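fwd from M.: "can u put these together and see what the complex looks like"

so here's what she sent:
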Amino acid sequence: MDRIRVGVLGATGNVGQQFVGMLVDHPWFELTALAASERSVGKRYCDVAKWRAERELPSEVGEEVVLPVDPGKVDADLVFSALPADLALKVEAEFADAGFVVASNARSYRMFDDVPLMIPEVNPEHLGLLEVQQDTRGWDGCIVTNPNCSTIIMVTTLAALRGFGLESVQVATMQALSGAGYEGVASMAILDNVLVHIPMEEEKMETETLKLLGEFDGERVIDAEISVSASCHRVAVMDGHTEALWVKMRDDPTPEEVREAFHGFDADLHDLPSEPERVIIVRDEEDRPQPRLDRNAGGGMSVSVGRIREGIRYIAMGHNTIRGAAGASVLNAELLHKKGIL
Amino acid sequence: MDRIRVGVLGATGNVGQQFVGMLVDHPWFELTALAASERSVGKRYCDVAKWRAERELPSEVGEEVVLPVDPGKVDADLVFSALPADLALKVEAEFADAGFVVASNARSYRMFDDVPLMIPEVNPEHLGLLEVQQDTRGWDGCIVTNPNCSTIIMVTTLAALRGFGLESVQVATMQALSGAGYEGVASMAILDNVLVHIPMEEEKMETETLKLLGEFDGERVIDAEISVSASCHRVAVMDGHTEALWVKMRDDPTPEEVREAFHGFDADLHDLPSEPERVIIVRDEEDRPQPRLDRNAGGGMSVSVGRIREGIRYIAMGHNTIRGAAGASVLNAELLHKKGIL
Amino acid sequence: MDRIRVGVLGATGNVGQQFVGMLVDHPWFELTALAASERSVGKRYCDVAKWRAERELPSEVGEEVVLPVDPGKVDADLVFSALPADLALKVEAEFADAGFVVASNARSYRMFDDVPLMIPEVNPEHLGLLEVQQDTRGWDGCIVTNPNCSTIIMVTTLAALRGFGLESVQVATMQALSGAGYEGVASMAILDNVLVHIPMEEEKMETETLKLLGEFDGERVIDAEISVSASCHRVAVMDGHTEALWVKMRDDPTPEEVREAFHGFDADLHDLPSEPERVIIVRDEEDRPQPRLDRNAGGGMSVSVGRIREGIRYIAMGHNTIRGAAGASVLNAELLHKKGIL
Amino acid sequence: MDRIRVGVLGATGNVGQQFVGMLVDHPWFELTALAASERSVGKRYCDVAKWRAERELPSEVGEEVVLPVDPGKVDADLVFSALPADLALKVEAEFADAGFVVASNARSYRMFDDVPLMIPEVNPEHLGLLEVQQDTRGWDGCIVTNPNCSTIIMVTTLAALRGFGLESVQVATMQALSGAGYEGVASMAILDNVLVHIPMEEEKMETETLKLLGEFDGERVIDAEISVSASCHRVAVMDGHTEALWVKMRDDPTPEEVREAFHGFDADLHDLPSEPERVIIVRDEEDRPQPRLDRNAGGGMSVSVGRIREGIRYIAMGHNTIRGAAGASVLNAELLHKKGIL
């Protein structure tokens, strides 16, 4: 099988580095292009990306010359976008128009009517929007997006509970630093502290969830009729968003029934390379999940749940830059490939 | 005015030290006895209490010889109890029986029908239970208790909203390390981590709240008819519990009306030395309150609120070992004195 | 006595806020001008300085309109400078030329031959350089500087040991985050980590020390003949630089003699408002000093020492933005006033 | 090849768990016995060892029943000891007497004249002491020890510099929390703080180093004539001790010569399974090594050095519970096996 040639837009930042790390040994994808902003263009990747992962950057990738985020300069079939939202709006359209498949982690296109907002285990049928998108916009390529990191972790667990009739969700998050980017949170802001506001985060959780759990009628996605109320907070954790949820359901399931639903949840996507053995891992210990101990479960692609109590209340925790960002886009791209779109 | 002679039971621990710190210069109380467990008895307080407050331990207090927790050995009118719960059950009764007023931070007697569980600004009329208590038990003294730290911070804000008709409360806490005592949380447990379970904490918040907001009918307290659901978590913060709350109220007030209720809340207790200028401080900045910046507001006795949003959602934050523990007991004692009980 | 009118240049930053905090209630100085960069000019101080101290910003100061860093616009007798080094080089000269006394925390002028680099308890006689400075430069005003934060803490302790004949010093620092400014260290850089390089810090400690301990011959300062070797590191501490020192001395004193020298050190400056009761506090506990417990000793103006061992090895610790920055400049200004220069 | 049957004494603690993790897949060793204190005996390992490693405990190991630390109950050829020092003194002798090879991480026997204190890359010839030991003590088995974690990291780098004539060493450490055991450092002790004293740590670094670098004359080890002066400190880092060193050498090498010596250091032990590709990794970036980024280099068995400056000063950093504890014992055992002793 020929490997798909892929590039990364915004390759030098925190999420961009995660993309690179996940793509270096990917069985289906071959990393052929690293693109970033003007000040990095023409330089070696290892000189401009301050590599911070434990695993060393492979030297052949480090030697790559950084390209501009210009469809004419990037040689690839698909590009992953870790661009900032303002830039993504313009650039991703240019790539889609030029025939690229764009798998984007940026928020810019998530809520457009003709753009799929996807979690492969949750709403794969929303991929049908791509036809609408190409018809509407006249693009040869297309854009598929994944949700905000906090939303992905929550909605993956909600998907397992759909059968009980979701009615309302309240969620309080304790989010990791990496969600804000490497320079996003000053150490003086968070040491011995909690930050009680993350700009736009509550809004994203409250709107993206409705689209993700909505129904695709062949033309568009009808938002799910669920009420979502979020309170988002930052804590001194490197990676791994922890979320305390209250979920009201029509069928009023018991904690044990909820546990079974989590435990039995399987989207049957195990032919995708990045799909973990278990999408949702149920921890029965009373003090789990914990971000430091559980964030790397399933290669960072599993969501761990625990403390399922009357209410229904439970804790969900997942790796925000893997399952919640780069891995989410890669999984979307793998699904596209499996479906023959790529 | 003669100053009231007070002692501290469990004086060497974390909350015990807070008591000592608050009593050293108290205008009404004179610290006359420091009592602790067997291994400290007979030694100088400065040698057995590993003093950790920024403010130096006054040398005359440090020179005090530690007494046993024995009513026959403690010379005082009132004792503050920072004893562990198992010990408190027995010892506090002995002191009350021997004629002492016991102002206890321990959980042992909080939920007994004849023991007042008090926040002076919330339910001062519950002091009426003391007569019932003395009648029932035949004590010359009495026991008055304050709630768990997380409960105090929450309920102080709920008290301001009672006029709207409280119906249900959901609360997710991000609690400080000091709530578990000095040795309570290992550094390896919390660095780069969140702990998603605090033993008994959710239960305390859910039961104590109903008693605190209940009605005293002259004989007993009728629990308030409110539904409280808590999810309690520990984060890497030294002092200051942060709480994200959702409160449903019969009158469905707007965020602005809730803000006004917080802002206007005044229990009119300013003749008590430990009462802060404002019980509830409303922060209008979108990123406040924060534990590091706001925990010492009002000498640690104010509760700060912010981010009042539709829902009604808001953030409450207070100092867990001052307003939430030692200061709570001291304020109770001050109220007892004002009411002529002491 | 008329109070001296003082301004702060660079008033919105971390050290600038410390200056404001120290000057609000100063008995000799009256804060009459807050100056900052273009983007803050014309706005209220409370709107542009994100105030982060525990103590609330007094509202009358918060209402002040921020001025440009322009000698023509600032109405004051003395200005404290918390400007960045590149800007300070130009601006401080302009103020000095316009007749202002400039007490600067910036590094720009520290090592100029005609500029006093001062710690009042260490080398007050270096003030004599001001005459040289005014002669040379034709300024009506003048510039006096204080050393780098790490240097101040170390040299204050070395000053107490001069009588033993200082020969060489090796110092390993564990420096606080606030030394880098509020945005200086990303949380992702320091959580669960140590940073082993602080740009220019070792160089400053090695050169400034020689000037500080040097001899003023009426014309210039002859560097002390001491060898200083520094290794500087950043740790996850908010405030308070901890330093492990090895000091070789001609007279080879015992630890007990060194302890006595520290204990007896008194520069007799207690008529200066910011001078702490003890410049050097000796901690005899084997686990002190610690930054969290000891940084605010003497209002943040004392340096704490401990663990004096054979070698001679010891630990020195002080508050880096009070004793090591804003407080250092204020103390210099107080000395200038006492000497009649202001 | 038959695999060597090995046991772990003190298997439930922090270092014990590290042993288990390293032995589960070991190519030469088969884990046949988990022994621990009375309160764990007879219970399943997964129920008594609160497993905290990211990698899940293999279920077949978790199901093992914990044995007493009794030579009659442990079925193995070699035992690794993670026992506390007081217990190790008695128990390790019992095992050695009963014919076991004991590879101990405890400090109890390190400084005995007839016990090898070993780092395979540094002083493999000290194994000769085992004959002396068996002659003297009449044991069928034997005890071999590895140094304290801080000492190992330092001495591994010093070994590379022996050719220059080591004269004196000064070292300031910034040590990780895991070095004190899981419950060793309370979170309230270290958050926003540095601890300036680690009991016995400086003494260990100063004495163990002399034995490690000493010469074995066939009968005993003659201490190296080097002066070592240590100042040991604890910082808020999970794993990875960072050390700032000053090393004086007879030949006065340049930083570049020192760098070459580090870079070229190879003990030629690559037939040992736990030997990393590079014992010493030289980092040329000005801000490396850092514990979070570099502690897992070489599977946690490499020591990283950087910032080699005039002085000679440099930074050494290594994983304290792998290279500095469990991995050190395992490497010793591998060397014993290679030498035919096991």
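replying to her w this: The first strand of chain A starts at residue 4 and ends at 9.
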